[in-house]
Design brief:
Blueprint: H1 9-26, H2 34-53, H3 57-64, H4 72-79, E1 81-85, E2 98-105, E3 108-115, H5 121-126, H6 134-150, E4 154-160, H7 167-171, H8 174-187, E5 192-201, H9 202-206, E6 213-217, E7 221-223, H10 227-234, H11 241-248, H12 252-257, E8 263-265, H13 276-294, H14 299-311
Parallel strand pairs: 3-4, 4-5, 5-6, 5-7, 6-8
Antiparallel strand pairs: 1-2, 2-3
Helix pairs in contact: 1-2, 3-11, 4-13, 6-8, 10-11
Length: 319
């Protein structure tokens, strides 16, 4: 069952009519309604295309957070093969908000790391809504070091509102763990491709996205803070979140212009949540292409390329 966002209500009404007509046709009515069905389906598809072609940054934020959007386990199931999960940071415990392990992508052996938000109340609680704790980022560091040791490229799937801000995370060194994870990304001697697949929030996202190639889904968002958090700071009210989203330039299209990301991956019409299999296949193809392009570079060249791309961000912006 499709879960509709507020701005999708006109589409929802049309699709409800289509569903009613189909149900009526299935009850054996002698009236031929195929022409009417075709007309409504075409109108619904056109409306959906027009709606998603003109999304505001705030609407894109809602799409990026859609509960039916594919998460880490969906990518493992539909886009990778031979996934072998590896858990624990060897210091404190295992953090289920950040998952990782060995996998195969279109014949390439990789180390796969990513955020998992969960898909229902029980799994969202188990995975802490994708908000990583220090042990999660230290696990990511351990897996990146493993990849470096065995010459395996690293692929990360970023989808988090931010690192977990609870007091226990601070007590265990949250800021230091995020910084070390970012450092581990930059120091890798193997290719690294990061993909912002949903919501990329704050240092919790950067810690897994400091790669030489950063991809982003068409309707994903990536920013230093959530729109609600920004609005609460600037205007003392979260109701200004749409204005904050507009000002923060957090969409894939804006971030591509200023060099924060390298490539935008198209989503199915209506967002990745409408057709997860097609979205995951498109992302897999894009990651594979980027890995092929990086495969001939030496460790020093990869590190230099990473350094150059991050130092170049915003360099050409008007002063």
């Amino acid at each position: 069952m499709i879960s509709y966002l507020e701005f999708e209500k006109p589409v929802a009404e049309l699709e409800a009519k289509i569903a009613d007509l189909r149900e009526a046709a299935g009850e054996g009515d002698d009236v031929d309604i195929s022409a009417e069905l075709t007309k409504l389906e075409r109108k619904s598809n056109d409306l959906l295309k027009a709606t998603y072609a003109g999304l505001s940054p705030w609407q894109k934020t809602q799409v990026a957070r859609h509960p039916s959007r594919p998460h880490f386990h969906d990518y493992v199931k539909l886009g990778f093969e031979e996934f072998l999960p590896l858990g624990g940071d060897r210091l404190y415990s295992d953090d289920l908000a950040i998952m990782g392990g060995l996998a195969t992508l279109q014949g390439r052996k990789v180390v796969l790391i990513g955020h998992e938000k969960g898909h229902d109340t029980q799994t969202r609680i188990a995975h802490n809504f994708g908000m990583g704790k220090p042990e999660g980022y230290r696990k990511a560091i351990r897996l990146m070091e493993l990849a470096d040791r065995f010459g395996l490229p690293v692929v990360t799937l970023v989808d988090t509102s931010g690192a977990f801000p609870g007091i226990e995370a601070e007590e265990r060194g949250q800021a230091e763990a995020i910084a070390r994870s970012t450092e581990a990304c930059l120091a890798l001697g193997v290719p690294m491709v990061a993909a912002i697949v949903g919501e990329g929030g704050s240092g919790g996202a950067v810690a897994l996205a400091s790669a030489e190639r950063v991809l982003m889904f068409e309707h994903a968002v990536y920013s230093v803070i959530s729109p609600e958090g920004c609005a609460s700071i600037l205007w003392r009210t979260a109701e200004k979140a749409p204005d904050a989203a507009q000002a923060m330039r957090m969409t894939a299209q804006d971030l591509k212009k200023i060099g924060v990301i390298d490539r935008i991956v198209k989503e199915p019409v209506g967002g990745a949540q409408r057709d997860p299999r097609a979205a995951i296949a498109a992302l897999g193809d894009a990651i594979a292409e980027e890995l092929d392009g990086l495969s001939g570079l030496s460790s020093d060249e990869l590190r230099q390329q990473r350094e150059d791309r991050f130092l170049a961000i915003g360099r050409d912006l008007p002063r």
